[in-house]
Amino acid sequence: MLGVVANPGVDLVRFGDELRAELDALEAEVQAELDDPSLTLELVVDQPRYVAARLLDLQRSLLLSTLIVALVLLVAMGPRLALVSSAMVPLAVLSAVAVFGIGGGVLHQISLAGGVIAIGMVVDNAIVVVEEIQRRLDEGEAPPEAARASARALLNPLAASTATTVAAFFPMLLNSGAAADFTRAIPVMVILALLTSFAFSLFVLPPVASLVLRPRRRASAKLEDAEAKRPTRSLGLRVVDRLLRRPALALLPGLAMIIMAATALPSLRVRFFPPTKRNQAVVELQLREGTHVDAVAAVSETVEEELLGLDAVEQLTVTLGRGLPHFYYNLPETKAQSNFAQMLVQLRAPEEVEAVEARVDALRTQLPPGTKLRVARLKQGPPVVAPVELLLYSPGLDELRTSARAVAEALAEVEGLTAIRDSIDAGAPSLRFDLDRARNQPWGVDEAALRASLLSHTAGLPAGTVLHGRHHEPVVVRAAPRRAELEAPPAIDLPADLAVAGTRGQLRVAEVSERRLEWAPAAITRKYSKRFARVTAELEPGVELDAVRGAIEARVAALELDDAGVTVAFAGEAESAEEANDSLLRALPVGLVILVLVLVWEFDSLRCVGLVLVTVPLAAVGVIPALAVSGQPFGFMSALGVVALIGVVVNNAIVLLDLTQQLRAEGRSTREAVHAATLRRVRPILLTTATTVVGLIPLLVSNTSLWPPLALTIISGLLASTVLTLVTLPALAMLVLPLGAHRSTRTR
């Protein structure tokens, strides 16, 4: 088997096409040269085809999202407004992609998904601008003046809303670690799209809108009265009116969301990264350390026959003594070792992995003692050895061996775990030669000479390295009676007359040393210069790590390994999740500080800042019931969705409160200002929510396990925030903002 890896920066799809053409030509050349048409070159894994298919799906999602957003705008706004607003989507997204490419970015599924996420956001600024221009046109202003006045009036609120959304995605740029590197293209693409949308909405859209839009005829002399007659605005106005009479009732929606979240929280599943939906699985076989590769091949044949007997298996490829080529981006690296084999199983459908796992579970009892066999599912996210991985550190090998066995037995009692194994091997038989100093004294044989003599007939004497491709391969010199034995594996088959050189000549090794048989570790593993052992386990289908971690910690704590000088640390998915979450939490305060500073600059009022920020936790609370009801787990992608949600949900509050403050500055009472601001902003708020939601629908229903949790998190949180903005926020503004003008209005 030959693995071919493209150089960084190479177009993988084009590389795959060129490579397949080369292989077809090479196959024909070899068949002609050997006159054997049965000789074929077969592609076991064609990653470029997977990449091309995934990119095509996301490109379709991008196009579908754009069309859905345009259709929603057409129905809600009419042809002219919809045409001007929806034109911002391809303009902003394509400009962002161009800047991303100029900056050295690579177009892949993560960056394309970032573009899909941004579609609903980039149209928000355009909707607000065209609505404002249309309102001014309806009030009788000339098109050029309406365009200029709208751009001036919306400069600060749009800058603030764009800055808050950028601030929400900014922590993802500062995030570090394998998970952050995996998803970094998402915030880059979204931020670029938001910035281009802001620039186009203020500097390109107004002059275009002044040429396209026309004043609408109104029967009523007062625009607000005419607007109130529209069904959507009339409904919003009636709700606001009722809540303004009893502002305390506005707390009920937020309280209801908290109760719903608390009720749904126990049923919420947690998963760091989901498994991928690919029709492939990796089966790993490991025998005792030091086992010859021929013995591994014999056991491997047994496993192959069993797996090929499944109807779900289409093809099976085996590598002996080493791991498979790096065909999937997060497969852990495996070192070459004679006791190891790895199999790539091609399945008819992704869900057939469970059939392979069931057959492997039944097969373990039929294999030689000490054999370790497991199915490694392909997963998204950073690489891990196994979902459950515990590392045991101790300077003593006996303590490690005893503790590893005890931990493995403890894990076997935890329901939901399977394929439990440890890295401690029984060892390998070895011959130890101890120099007899009394007998050796007259001959002057030292330990270095004895070691060299033994190595020359076993593993071989080091003789330097040779460059083979990109790697330096060791060169050893080994004695062999016949040349044919040079290819034979090292063996402890020493000749009886094996000699060793001393200061007074040569003599037999048996004359100056004592030989004894002992069991020794075949390999000594260290991490951070500390000797360690690894205990791993797989999760049964449908079981999440979060559901069994408490039981694992309790079982391990009951062993009291600290008393034996053994330290236990969680690795695997738990370590990756903690590192990713800790890194995100460390970067989150930076985004929150930027968000608060932008709000203070925009409003110059701590009360308004507090009103905006109160929508954030309540919107996040709306995520929990949605994930629990849909069965989607909360993981790293959902956490990214919550972080992104912070900037998205505050935009509606900013637009509403900014207009409220403007109207209050014109002399209106708080009640009148909130009343009028909600009347004007109800449709832009509903439209921005609708466009963001429908823009994410292709990701929500995509045939992948990676994007639905992210899309559902943003959708559910945004819907919750919209309810709060139109129902709770106006009444809260009545309770929090100064009431002087409001009281004076009531006494008239």
From TrEMBL:
GO molecular function: xenobiotic transmembrane transporter activity
Pfam families noted in UniProt: ACR_tran
Keywords: Membrane, Transmembrane, Transmembrane helix
Signal sequence residues: none
InterPro entries assigned: AcrB_DN_DC_subdom, Acrflvin-R
Residue ranges crossing the lipid bilayer per the database entry: 58-76, 151-174, 186-213, 248-268, 584-601, 608-628, 634-660, 681-701, 713-739
A GO CC term assigned to this protein in UniProt: plasma membrane
The name this protein goes by in its record: Nickel and cobalt resistance protein CnrA
Keyword Glycoprotein carried by entry: no
